[in-house]
Design a protein that fits this description.
CATH architecture of the largest domain: 3-Layer(aba) Sandwich
CATH class of the largest domain: Alpha Beta
Number of helices: 22
Strand content: 5-15%
Largest sheet: 11 strands, mixed
Number of domains: 4
CATH superfamily of the largest domain: P-loop containing nucleotide triphosphate hydrolases
Shape: elongated
Helix content: 40-55%
CATH topology of the largest domain: Rossmann fold
Number of strands: 16
Structural class: alpha/beta
């Protein structure tokens, strides 16, 4: 007697019987439908030429031998009515049915399909854009230009339909280096932006800066804040870094940018950092309210006993701040010197006159114009914020400028009915290196509702934790309504977290049992991870996992700029801009290279 044996087949085998059944049903429907259409069109043709009306319903004869039903019809009319027209109708119906099925079917892989992502696909995203943007009111959804519908995220796998976020979504992208974060997300978003654009970066040549510089200059004015000469840009602009520090809250935010740029979240709240931040706040406030440049703060830091800032605060009516600063200055010498030395380290980038020149009033306004964030927010200009990362960088200035622009945009939105139109796109590339805005997770909760669309790009989840801490990064992750995860996720804990977020799906398993009485089969269901952690780590370059609020996770193909129809033009522009950077670098004297001089 043979022992029972169970053979568990792969899920692909379980579809064989269903496929044959569907094939049989489809073939029957095709024959019945084709023959019925042949009978209908044959009778219609017979009636049109004036012969006897409807023949009896004999669909088989209508398809195979139509001349017996309509002997008076010419051969050409018979072939057209009974063969050509039914074939055309069936093909059109088949193509339409396949399109409908692809759009509305649920993916068997457990990932989102077109039906799940309908809100991010062209038709619904166009309708949403009309609701969010007053300038599009009265426009029919099908007439809304693609770039006015939202930020291009990629193409849906499979199907190839464009997937776009709306103009109230806030985005977080976590992508390893060379995984397409710049070419597939940042650059396409900048090139297609309908309104003002802000970009932070630590690179210039052959990157987002050179690729988009020419295209954005055709849309509006291009402003480049390049204090460390990443692109060797002549200083034709300056920004008043103390403009928003005329009250205590603004001065505290500015001091926070200098602290955050210098320390990690773990040490940002120790005694020395907190005391230094309070001292910088008081000094920035004293300089701003008295109309002095930020470079005066360096002089006050160098001479703790100087009473000038205390007197200026008294003159401005800021008695409490003056008393606090006086208390620090009059305290124990060791403590005072420690606080001021810490503050000096935080503001050290301003010691470089080439850096300080970008944020202090120039002697002559003939060639250097002032950048005003409130005007920028309501136009179509572009602001490139460039800085090196690491020690001695100007990242505090870059973070302060980006923060000032986004906050000015929110104020302008409130004055214009609640939303900016067109929206402002803020691409915070290398955010954890050159744009450490401490309360960015809190800003995410309301920026989108004001038409200010931040796109924060990180190389890893842990990189964000280093800047904002566990709680802060969790808050940023939760507040982002659109999350894109690219290839190269090597953090095992984060990959497992993503795997659990994507979830499980049902998989059919066919079991075949053999015994002395024969074979029997049964189908059972089991739960399986949609994407295991190793599959997330092995995502191919050029693809991304999309996590959108209220939508099942989906896999997207990124749409890099160099695969678009106008790639040749942008590539040539990037080459010219890169050559100009090289030429400007070579023109500088190695001995007297004043990186802040006016062209």
């Amino acid at each position: 007697m043979a022992s029972p044996h169970t053979d568990t087949r792969s899920p692909s085998i379980t579809t064989g019987t269903d496929f044959l059944l569907h094939l049989l049903i489809g073939g029957t429907a095709l024959v019945v439908g084709g023959s019925s259409l042949a009978w209908l069109f044959g009778n219609t043709a017979n009636l049109l030429v004036g012969h006897d009306p409807w023949a009896a319903y004999r669909p088989t004869d209508a398809l195979l031998c139509p001349e017996e039903l309509w002997p008076s019809l010419p051969g050409t009319a018979l072939i057209t009515a009974c063969h050509v027209l039914p074939t055309v109708v069936l093909l059109a119906a088949g193509v339409g049915g396949v399109k409908w099925w692809l759009r509305h079917r649920r993916s068997g892989s457990g990932l989102a399909g077109p039906r799940d992502l309908a809100a991010l696909l062209p038709r619904r995203s166009a309708a949403r854009a009309i609701d969010l943007r007053p300038g599009l009111k009265g426009c029919k959804p099908r007439r809304v230009p693609a770039d006015d519908r939202g930020v291009l995220l990629g193409s849906l796998k499979p199907g190839g339909e464009e997937v776009r976020s709306s103009w109230e979504d806030v985005l977080l992208a976590i992508m390893a280096p060379r995984s397409g974060k710049t070419s597939g997300l940042a650059i396409p978003a900048i090139l297609r932006a309908p309104g003002p654009v802000l970009l932070t970066s630590n690179k210039a040549a052959k990157d987002a800066f050179t690729t988009t510089l020419t295209a954005r200059s055709e849309v509006g004015e291009v402003w480049t804040l390049d204090p460390q000469q990443i692109a060797h840009t002549p200083r034709t602009m300056w920004w008043d870094i103390l403009a928003d520090a005329r009250d205590l809250a603004g001065a505290r935010r500015l001091a926070g940018h200098f602290v955050t740029a210098s320390v990690n979240e773990s040490s940002a709240n120790d005694f020395w950092s907190t005391a230094a931040a309070n001292t910088l706040t008081a000094l920035f406030l004293a300089a701003s309210t008295s109309g002095r440049p930020i470079t005066d703060v360096l002089s006050w830091l160098a001479s703790p006993a100087d009473r000038t800032p205390v007197d200026l605060l008294h003159d401005a009516g800021l008695e409490s701040v003056a008393a606090q600063l006086h208390g620090t200055v009059a305290g124990a010498v060791e403590t005072r010197d420690g606080i001021f030395e810490t503050a000096r380290q935080y503001a050290a980038c301003l010691l470089d006159p080439g850096i300080a020149a970008w944020v202090t009033p120039p002697k002559s306004m003939r060639k250097v114009r002032e950048f005003r964030p409130q005007e920028f927010a309501t136009g179509r200009d572009t602001l490139f914020l460039l800085s090196k990362d690491g020690g001695g960088s100007a990242s505090a200035i870059i973070a302060a400028a980006a923060d000032a622009v986004m906050r000015a945009a929110v104020i302008q939105a409130e004055r214009r009915g609640g939303r900016l139109d067109p929206p402002l796109l803020a691409i915070l590339d290398e955010a954890a290196n050159v744009c450490k805005i401490q309360d960015l997770p809190d800003l995410y909760s309301h920026l989108g509702s004001r038409g200010v669309i931040p796109v924060t790009i990180l190389q890893s989840y842990r990189q964000g934790v280093r800047v904002w801490g566990e709680a802060g990064m969790d808050a940023l992750w939760s507040a982002a309504t659109i999350k894109l995860i690219g290839s190269g996720v090597d953090d095992a804990d984060f990959a497992d977290k993503l795997s659990r977020l994507v979830g499980d799906h049902d998989v059919r398993t066919l079991s075949v049992s053999s015994s002395s009485s024969g074979k029997s089969s049964s189908v059972s269901m089991r739960q399986q991870r949609v994407l295991a952690a190793d599959a997330i780590r092995a995502l191919p370059k050029g693809s991304a996992l999309l996590l959108a609020t209220g939508v099942r996770p989906a896999l997207l193909d990124l749409r890099p700029w160099y695969r678009q129809p106008d790639a040749a033009r942008h590539s040539a522009a990037s080459a010219r801009a890169t050559a100009e950077i090289t030429e400007r670098a070579l023109r500088k004297s190695p001995r007297h290279g004043d990186f802040g001089t006016v062209a």
